[in-house]
Amino acid sequence: MIDFRYHLVSIVAVFLALTVGLVLGTTMLQDPLLNTLQSETADLRGQSEDLRSERDVADKVNAGADEMAEAVSSDMLDGRLTGLGVVVVTAPGANPEVADGLAERVEEAGGEVVGRVAVTDALVDAGNATFVDELSIQVSQDPDGLTGGPYEKAGTELGRALAAAGEAGDGDEEGAGRETEDPRDAEESPGGGGAHDAEAVLDAFSEGGLVQVEGDPAVSADALVVLAPAAGAADGADREAVNAVLTTVTTALHREVGAAVLAGDVPSSRGDGMLAQARAAEPEFATADVTGRPMGDIIAVLALAENLEGGAGAYGIGEGVRGFLPDPLPAAREAEDAASGAAEEAATGGRGGADESRRTVRGGE
What we know:
This protein is α/β, with parallel strands linked by helices. Helix content is 54%, strand content 9%.
């Protein structure tokens, strides 16, 4: 018969065997295991130092590239936008400092920033779609001619209000400089119209909380610089939906004004970023994705100048680009040609008077 003493001896023997096994195992495996871990740690530390060195080199190269861009910017941009009025349009979440940098490059290229339009969160809020639609129809001089969804209608009306007198475009090669009926001519007619109605449209969108307007951009835009939201401005499904709305508005703006560049950072050219969505649709406006650095801002202005000539390139280092910058570079606009065009338009009641009243808007002045 097995008694309690037998069970006790068995249990003690089991624990003793476990203890002996652990001691022997630890003694025999300790040195090889420790050596392996030390070796792997040293390798990882070396890789980390190599990556840190590569990062430092890349930072120095980028800093040098920015210095070079600053040094050659005058030569690269000289005359590319001579005599043109440019409106800077910023999306919700766009970096205002980047907008300031783009405005400076526009002026360096001979253009004039005649105003800014900041799209607000309210415009891209899906809950306001009905309000956006109704307001667009209400302010339109041709409500029956408005097509598409609420945001296409809104972009169309904003574009018509911004487009310079005598200018219109549909994104093709003949878009820039196409002559249309001067809205100011309608100002004298019983039905009203012209600059007054354009300002009324902008006021309506402003009072509705859909945009914020700086300067005097009504009937003054020969071209547009549209700044996409910065990386991290919105996440997930909201980001995708918002960027889809902004792309629709940008497309409509470009169709009415005639030349535009959509500028943003590299992350916006990936995944569900605004530039990525826009490029997937093969737009007729230009795109640039290195904005925020001196060289990126220069590329954006060159892309805009190319779009004025009918080109619609995608530039930078993101997905779907044609190259880092336009090649060949767009031609400079001759100052005498621009002056001649302005004089001719002034003689026919065109934009000459508007040019005198333009006010450059920089940094929110």
